[in-house]
Amino acid sequence: MTIQQLKAKFIEKYGEGDIHGYFSPGRVNLIGEHTDYNGGFVFPCALSFGIYCLVRMTDRKTVRFASENLGFEAEVGIEELSKPIGKEWVNYPIGVFAQFLKKGLAFEKGADLFFYGDVPTGAGLSSSAALEVATAVLINEEYGFGLDRIELALMAQKAEHEFALVNCGIMDQFVSAMGKKDHAVFLNCDTLSYDLVPVILDGVKIVISNTNSPHKLDSGKYNERVAECQAAVKAIQPFQSISALGEISWADFLKVEAKIEDSTVRRRARHVVSEIQRTTDAVTALKAGDLEKFGVLMNGSHDSLRDDYEVTGLELDTMVEEGRKITGVIGTRMTGGGFGGCTVSLVKDEAVDIFVSQVGANYEKRTGLKPLFYVAEIGDGGKRLF
Ligand code: GLA
Fold first, then answer.
1. Known catalytic membership, residue 36
2. Distance 36 CA to ligand 1 centre (A)
3. What are phi and psi of 42, to 5 degrees?
4. Which residue's alpha carbon is at the smallest distance from atom 1 of ligand 1?
5. Residue 222 CA, ligand 1 centroid: distance in Å
6. Ligand 1 neighbourhood includes 347 CB (under 6 angstroms)
7. pTM for the model
8. Minimal CA–CA distance to 382: which of 57, 152, 142?
9. 144: CATH
10. 163 and 62 housed in the same domain
């Protein structure tokens, strides 16, 4: 859908006016999975697809929410934007409005909002973060609140905690707000200091494979992992004073690992601490132009998420197994929260077509699901379009 078509849809729905447009991207994480809520490192990039939102400010005392592809519509009073509405998608943007109210920033005017997304929903590419960040950037600009980008990302994350009840880390909202074209964001999730690293892939593409098995992040499994990591911190504390798994090095972890009694908790911690090490190693490798090493670390990440963190499952594992059979695949792993969703692979240019056809056919044969493939383009973070 073009911007002109989207504008026409807006006018059809709400009528003419001074219409502005915003966009915020989904993301693919190259490496550093389930490390963000442990104060570790992540290395995601913003995608060229995401969520668009068109807006027109009004003199009514309500905000109207509608969408091209999400069905449900709502009209909420400007002082009522602090409570969820059932289980509908509008809770994501409402959750963001609520964060402004919580800061004591009141809305003097109403607004008409119209959303459209070209990021697949439920695929683990952060459509919800894109929706939240698009809303946050829009509110900030249209109401002239002047908050900075990182604060907006943190507010978007809070909206997810409070309105979607997922205790997510900061990765998705941060990269959706702060991403940069052709760069990945090497983010320290403890301090929020970050480095924009150019992703120069000579003769190599980033291929995203959608298992079409929706990731079930709100199923409670995600929050269960968050709780297991907290249990791991408690189990380590008698031996080393830490407040998050991100504070212990891999070498020190090996000294205390056997002291963690619960074997599940032990394996969860092993994943997180090793993944943090892999992430810093991967960034060093990328900066040195060593893609082969980067690929080996991606593979290690998937195996750890499969064996120790147990967030992969049949579809993601099958996609990765089939990908690894193709000559020209440098590395392949699940990306995002897991339990379905997408994999990310580095594939040599000449192998991309074979990858799509063979992995596609074999995956479908083995799972009965039709996958989708996208060659990722790394785009910018959330912004006003017009
Ligand atoms: C989801 C969460 C993120 C992060 C990833 C796993 O995408 O929203 O905060 O924890 O899972 O790395």
1. no
2. 7
3. -135, 165
4. 337
5. 8
6. no
7. 0.97
8. 152
9. 3.30.230.10
10. yes
